Structure formats: structure tokens, C-alpha cells
Amino acid sequence: MTGSTTGPVPGSTADPEALRERALAALLAARERTAHLTSCVDEAELTAQHSPLMSPLVWDLAHIGNQEEQWLLRAVGGRDALRPEIDSLYDAFEHPRATRPSLPLLAPDEARRYAAEVRGRALDVLERTPFHGSALTDAGFAFGMIAQHEQQHDETMLITHQLRAGAPALTAPDPVPAEAFDGPDEVLVPGGPFTMGTSTEPWALDNERPAHQRLVAPFFLDTTPVTNAAYQRFIDDGGYTEPRWWHERGWAMVREQRLAAPLFWRREGDQWLRRRFGRVEPVPADEPVLHVSWFEADAYARWAGRRLPTEAEWEKAARHDPRSDRSLRYPWGDEDPTPERANLGQRHLRPAPAGSFPRGQSPLGIRQLMGDVWEWTASDFLPYPGFVAFPYREYSEVFFGGDYKVLRGGAFSVDAVACRGTFRNWDHPVRRQIFSGFRTARDATAAELAELV
After folding, report:
1. 428 with 403: CB under 8 angstroms?
2. Residue 300: how many CB atoms within 10 A of its CB?
3. Residue 304 · residue 440 · CB < 8 Å
4. Using CA atoms, how far apart are residues 10 and 202, in angstroms rounded to an integer?
5. Cα distance between residue 2 and residue 287, in whole Å
6. Contacts of 234 (CB under 8 A, 6+ apart)
7. Is-same-fold flag (16-163; 174-453)?
8. Positive or negative, the Cα torsion across 441, 446, 447, 451?
9. Treating both helix axes as pointing N-terminal to C-terminal, what angle do 108-128 and 16-39 enclose, rounded to 10 degrees?
10. Top CATH class, 174-453
11. Cis preceding linkage at 175, omega within 30
12. Cα separation of 125 and 143, whole Å?
């Protein structure tokens, strides 16, 4: 827990006991996933650093427990500290990922025991805490925040599993094959105002707040994320050899790192292969492209005569219902995600084919806005008007205005508790190890709009 409480979270009219049950289920689901990600490899793999971009898996495991102790046991429950001496070891701001292997970290068995002891006490706090009376406990916010935090680290650990060498450690069924998508390539998103962000979602994080009005001009958006086949056409047309498509910093990255394709791709003869969680396989043409940086997404869009959507454009396409003129929680409505609507929660270890999940499409018919791949937007990570940091500045505020681009929508690696129409992710534009893809947009011309009148 870093910093101090700086502002309130708006309350919720939801039934407190229903929220308590939801919090319990979310905490248990997160811990089950954490256990799976840390029990499928041996101790040496847990303590190794598989990439300087990532922490050793054992650091994430103890960090999860430490955050839970600080927020649920100490801040909410008023309990005495269990292991105050390790707080600084697991402070993400004090120790960059590249240096964490040199720290005197808890060994795997000790980290497991610590996280388990914290969890047992946290469930007791959950049972006894009224869901009202303070900003942290209103609507069970602190419990929802910790469930989201653990799931976010589970996604980070899944990235580490993708980066690690050696035999596969994870298995999951592939998505059910979808019928071939025969819809339009792009959809017109009407211009006009809409409500962006939220002031009512009980577990929304501070950067999603408050709800406010945004005005968006009419634009066209891809109906599905850009596929591997489409991206291969960019490669085959010399996309990585032509500087005119690239941002200056992106072109420097291409030359310095000798990039020629998305991360984990390699060419063998006339075929592209990829490495996916320890397995090498042909790149599937119909899946959304994965492991591309913002610079690569931006270059592709320029090559295609298009652009990346802004964050506001993306959210309007994902949430605004033109029939009711209101913003939905998810593209399909206000109901929670289900397997028929979105590929979330590490249920699969890959994106579903582009055009999947017709039951999850938006009112305008745009598909896969939730799940499968994080989608890069054109926007920098900035606060909304009226932003108030909560429960500590270091969650969002310290990243505003830095070298970060916004990603939206969540990937197959993201749990539903940490994914909604208002959820904002951010990362450096050079990042490729994350489960990132994109879709493109373009302005609607006056002539096109006139034809629709």
C-alpha cells in the first residue's frame, strides 16, 4: 500500500450482501488462478527472472499477499501488521522489475504460506465488515480493488509464462470455432455526445471516474480487430522497411531491434510461425494479431490509409447505445460477461477468430470490443475532468502525462472483474510482450454522411 487515501469513491445502491458474495467469489477465483500459475512450474522457474521486463513469479506471489495484507487486514480490518519488514521488498515503486531478483525475497513455500495466512484473515475481515461508512468499505470497494489487483498480477504472470523458455507449462482448450464472419469490414459510429467513464460502477478504479460528457465526430471503425492475415500483408508490402509509415521513435526502434514482425513470430521458408506458451505453431490467419507495440499498430494504420481510434471514440463504439442514448456497462448491455459474449479469464490461451461472439457485439454490430486482445488507442493516458486520486496517488495519477498510451477492451488474459467498458489500461508505446492488438478507424467524409441522410 503506497501513499494515503485522497478522496472518496461514490456509493452504490446494489444490495450489500450481494456485493459481499460477489467479493468473496472474486477473491477466491483470483487465488485459484494465482495458484495455478505458480504451481505448474518448479521452484527454480518461480525464482528465475525470465525477462528483465518482468518480475520473478515468486515476487508477484508475495506482492499479491502483501497488498492484501496492507489494504484488507490493516486499512480495512484495523489488524496489526503480520510482516511489516517485507513491505519495502514488495513495493513496486521502490524496486524496478529488473532489480527484483537481487532482493532477499521470500522463498516459494514461505511466500505461499504468507499469502495463505493473509487470505484466511482477509476472509474473516470480509465477513465482518459493513459495506458502508467509509470510502474504502462503501460497496465493498477495497475487496473489489484487491481482487482486481490480484487478477492484474495474474495477467502479468501469464505474460511471464509466455516469455519463459522451455517446455509448455500451461494448457487450455482452444476457443470453439466460429462461423466465418461475413459482416461489413467497418461500421459508422454516429457523431454526437455520449457519457464517458462512470460514477456508479461500484468497483471502478479512480482513472475511470467521474462520468462526463464527450463529443465525438462521426467516424468509421473496424468491425473486428486487425487479423494476422491482414498484418502479414503489411509485412509483405515492406511495412518494416519503409520509414514513411512510422513514428520517428518507432522507426528508431525498428532499426535498433531489427524488427520484421510481431514479437514471437519467425519465418521458416514461406510460412510464418509463432511461439505461444512454449509451443511453436503456424500463425493462424483469422486470429487478431497479438504482441504488437503501439508503434507497430500506428504504422499499420498509416499504411492502410487509416488511423488508430482515440480513447473516446473507442469507448463510444463500445458503450453508447444510439437507440436508448445511454452508455452501457459492456458492448452487449449491462449484464456481466459470459463465455458466449467474450473471451476472458484465461479460459483459452489465445484470441478467438476475428468475428467471433455475435452475442457480445455492440448495438452497432461491432465485435470483440471486450476480450481477445487489448486494443491500442491513439490517446495518451490522462485524467478525466474532475479526477480525484483514490485510494492512493500511485495507482493512476503518477502515470498521467508520461510516456503512456491507452489500451482498451481487455484480452483473453484478463478476468472479467478487471474488465469493463470503462476500464483503462496503459503502457509504453514500445511494449510488445503484452497481449496487445488493435483495430483501425477513419474519419467519415461529408459525402458519406450525406448519402446516409
Report:
1. yes
2. 23
3. yes
4. 7
5. 39
6. 299, 300, 303, 304
7. no
8. positive
9. 170
10. alpha beta
11. no
12. 10
Cα–Cα distances in Å, from 433 out to 57, 264, 271? 16, 9, 22
Alpha carbons 42 and 51: distance in angstroms, whole number: 17
For residue range 131-154, what is the model confidence (pLDDT) as tens digits?
A: 999 999 999 999 999 999 999 999
pLDDT at 255: 98
Pairing of strands 436-437, 271-276: unpaired
Q: Is the peptide bond before 391 cis (omega within 30 degrees of 0)?
A: yes
Rounded to whole angstroms, how far apart are CA atoms 406 and 312? 11
- Identity of the amino acid at 305: G
Q: All 3 cell numbers of residue 198? A: 462512470
Q: Quote the mean pLDDT of the chain.
A: 95
CATH node for 16-163: 1.20.120.450
Amino acid at 314: W
b/e 159-171 (16+ beta carbons within 10 angstroms → b): bbbbbbeeeeebe
Residue 31 CA neighbour count, 13 Å, CB half: 20
**Cβ-contact 45, 170 below 8 angstroms:** no
**Residue 10's pLDDT is what?**
42
Are the C-beta atoms of residues 191 and 221 closer than 8 Å to each other? no
**Strands laid side by side in the 279-282 sheet:** 265-268, 271-276, 279-282
What is the Cα–Cα distance from 165 to 132, expressed in whole angstroms?
Answer: 47
Q: Compute CA 28 distance to the chain's CA centroid, rounded to the nearest angstrom.
A: 20
The DSSP code for 257 is H
Distance CA 342, CA 318 (A): 13
The dihedral sign for the CA sequence 246, 251, 253, 259? positive
Cell reading at 427: 503502457
Distances (CA, A) of 449 to 143, 308, 453: 47, 21, 7
Which amino acid belongs to residue 92?
A: A
Q: Which residue in the block uniquely carries the three cell numbers 532499426?
A: 255
Contact status, residue 226 vs residue 438, Cβ threshold 8 Å:
yes
The span from the CA of 392 to the CA of 410, in Å, is 24
Within 8 A by CB and 6+ apart from 139, the residues are: 9, 11, 12, 14, 16, 19, 131, 202, 203
pLDDT digits (tens, 9 = 90+) for 254-273: 999 999 999 999 999 999 99
Domain boundaries, the chain: 16-163, 174-453
| β-pairing verdict for 425-427 and 436-437 | unpaired
Please name the amino acid found at residue 399.
F
Cell digits of residue 375: 486494443
